[in-house]
Amino acid sequence: MATQRRILFHWLFLLVAALIPVVELALPGRLHFGDLLRPIFIMAMLGLGLNILTGFTGLLNLGVAAFMAVGAYSYAILTCDIYPFRLGFWPATLVTVLVGLTVGLLLGLPTIRLRGDYLAIVTLGFGEIVEDVLKNLDSITKGTQGINPLPSPSVFGYRFRPETYQPWYYLFLGILALLVLLNRNLHRSRIGRAWISIREDELASSCMGINPMKMKLLAFALGAAQCSLAGALWASYLGSSGEPGNYDFQVSIIAVCIVIVGGMGNVGGVLLGALVIMGFNSIVLETVTNFLKAHQLISSSNVFTSPGNWKYMLYGLALILMMRFRPEGLLPSKQLKAELHPPEPNVPPPAS
Amino acid sequence: MSGAEIFLQQLIIGLSNGMIIALIALGYTMVYGIIELINFAHGDLFMLGCFAALTLMGLFGLDHVATGSSGVWPGLLLMLIVVPLFCGGLNWVVDRFAYRHLRESTKLAPLVSAIGVSFVFMNLGLLWGGVPMKVFGFGRAAAAPKDFPELLSNTNLLGQSTVQFSGKDLMVFVVTLPLMALLTWYVKSTRAGKAMRAVAQDRLAAQLMGIPVDRVIGQTFLIGGALAGVASVVFAIYNNTIYYQMGYRAGIDAFTAAVLGGIGSLPGAVLGGLVIGLARAFCDQYIETRWTNVLVFAVLILVLVFRPSGLLGAPAKEKV
After folding, report:
1. How many of the other CB atoms lie within 10 Å of CB of B131?
2. Which residue of chain B comes nearest to A253, CA vs CA?
3. Nearest-neighbour CA in chain A from B50: distance (Å)
4. CB within 8 A of B191, min separation 6: which ones?
5. d(CA A318, CA A310)
6. Which of A52, A171, A266, B275 makes a 20 to 30 Å CA pair with B125?
7. Test mutation, B104, B301, B302, B317, chain A, max A CBs within 10 A
């Protein structure tokens, strides 16, 4: 019964999301929430990729922006006119996902044996190396200009245009919905259970016949593939690979914030996290700033009164306070919540 | 300049910067040694120290003192006392409120918390840069790099030689070397240092022996932070430019140094700092500046993969 209700809830959620652009068109005034939601969808995909690693398997990755960069640049190289490939949207996306998978495997192979915090640092270093290499190999990546312009994708014979956001919206929503389905099923499958058992106790899970190295490597590959898919879609949306600085450490950390604030190991939690963190950035902060500016309450010359200058303070405090008071996130997975809030061991049994 | 002179020059630059990296790395390695936390905010603490030093310059009008005159000494001394106190105190407060409650939690919890602290510090640095003071350019463009006034002159102490060894280079060694000796003596020979080592070895056993574990950990944060404070004064005087995002790069260099030397080992951190400083200087000279960061990260990854215990560290005991 509970499962049925949950499924109903999910369909309802998808329906609401699908109706947003339609309602906006019908309403008077120039709302553009659907437009603002597109980057949130992309970041949600990035968060889902990281969630496989950090949420399910318990491997902290501080360099997912690098996987996203790999995705964006390989999509750009595969589609841009100045390179010989000139693939269409679907083949390029598919190849990009495979490239991401390979990169994840290649990074995972030597580093997977490392302990948790060392692995985190290696992934951070990898992220920095990718950023710098993309910047320095300017004969291929065009340095800080990025690869552009990319042709607008054409999906099922329909040619996308940068001016109308609705088709993009539905494309991203559809892919995100598929990814959510995939991740939920992975979570409940044999593989997902193996990942969770590794997160909970690696020794015990290897005693149960799970090969932790193989499973962690799989998590790396699948997580990287999803992150590079996010990168490919991002590049198609920008019409450019973006510049290497767009995929820096702060993007990786925002992905970490999304997963942790939303709820590690829970797909719904990651979606909520993306909505909260990115929505805060692109909707709340923007609206507040515009409101204050319109009413002459702040001047752009004063550093302190501009809300944008407090952004990272708020992100940082969110991380600290979450770890202190609700380490399982806003919408946690049941197991993680139980683990982080163990029942008091010393409660005497009730007198009979 | 002949080849040998270029080499010697890069050696001096590398060693000077390496000593500064080593000071920051000591803070990393002490904290990691005692609670196995990669204190992500340490680099940003160093950055805040630089801003504190610049604020002191402004408050006491030291930016008007002529470069290299005897008037700079009281100011230098003042900064070397106040900034370490500020950084050490701040580090202690952060441990008290952000990390102490997470000691029994999962291992990733304090690390994530430290990333949060790092963001808060970085944001504080951005806002601090907007303080309307003359040394900060009256708050114009808070994010812009700030000029740190020249306190020591660049006059070459080696006379007519083409190789530069200035008073700044000398200052780096004069400040850092005794400090490192003092730290070694403190950890090796005092009662407090013994308690520190005991907590690092086995926290529970130390507690059972009556060592106030939380206070010892707080002390470690205090000392590590103070070292970062000294490093920020030395860095600011040596390099004369500070900006609010410098903590990230400095932190990564220092962390790499700590890992390279063997995390948890004090001489290792110094050795690692020198190696990283030299590697950066030689890469700048003989390869290309734009590949220097790649080199540092490649060193970091290779060391972690092939020799996670570092150059001087004890073989890592895997805690399952």
Report:
1. 17
2. B115
3. 19
4. none
5. 12
6. B275
7. B301
Q: Residue window 179-238, chain A: list those with CB within 8 Å of chain B.
A: 202-203
Interface contact flag, B108 A116, Cβ < 8 Å: yes
- State how many domains chain B has: 1
Looking at the structure of chain A, the number of domains it has is 1
Domain membership of residue B74 (yes or no) is yes
**Residues 6 or more apart from B233 whose CB is under 8 A from it?**
B49, B50, B53, B76, B79, B80, B83, B84, B175
Domain assignment of residue A101, yes or no: yes
In a domain, A9, yes or no: no
- Within-domain flag for B22: yes
Q: Which residue of B has its CA nearest to A252?
A: B115
Return phi, psi of residue B203, to 5°. -65, -45
DSSP lists the bridge partners of residue B146 as B242
User: Which of A121, A136, A301 lies at the smallest CB-CB distance from B300?
Assistant: A121
Spatial separation of the C-alpha atoms in residues A155 and A172, rounded to whole Å: 12
Helix or strand run (H / E) with residue A82: none
Mutating which of A54, A56, A112, A117 best tests the B interface, going by the most B Cβ atoms within 10 A?
A117
A129 Cα to chain B: minimum distance (Å): 5
Phi then psi for B2, rounded to 5 degrees?
-80, 170
Beta-carbon pairs below 8 A across chains A and B:
141
Q: Does residue A125 belong to any structural domain of this protein?
A: yes
Residue B293 lies in a domain: yes
pTM of the model: 0.88
ipTM over 0.95: no
CATH number, residue B110: 1.10.3470
**Range of the structural domain that residue B301 is part of:** 9-131+165-306
Which pLDDT tens digits describe chain B residue by residue (320 residues)?
Answer: 788 889 999 999 999 999 999 999 999 999 998 888 889 899 999 999 999 999 998 888 877 777 767 778 888 899 999 999 999 999 999 999 999 988 888 777 888 899 999 999 999 999 998 888 888 877 667 788 888 888 887 777 777 778 888 888 898 999 999 999 999 999 999 999 999 999 998 999 999 999 999 999 999 999 999 999 999 999 999 998 999 989 988 998 998 899 888 888 889 999 999 999 999 999 999 988 889 889 988 988 888 888 888 887 765 554 33
Nearest CB to B304; choose among A54, A122, A327: A122
A299 touches chain B (CB under 8 A): no
CB contact under 8 A, B117 and A202: no
Q: Is residue B151 part of a domain?
A: no
Distance from CA of A303 to the nearest CA of B (A): 6
User: Inter-axis angle of helices A2-26 and A33-50, to 10 degrees?
Assistant: 150
> Residue A110 falls within a domain, yes or no?
yes
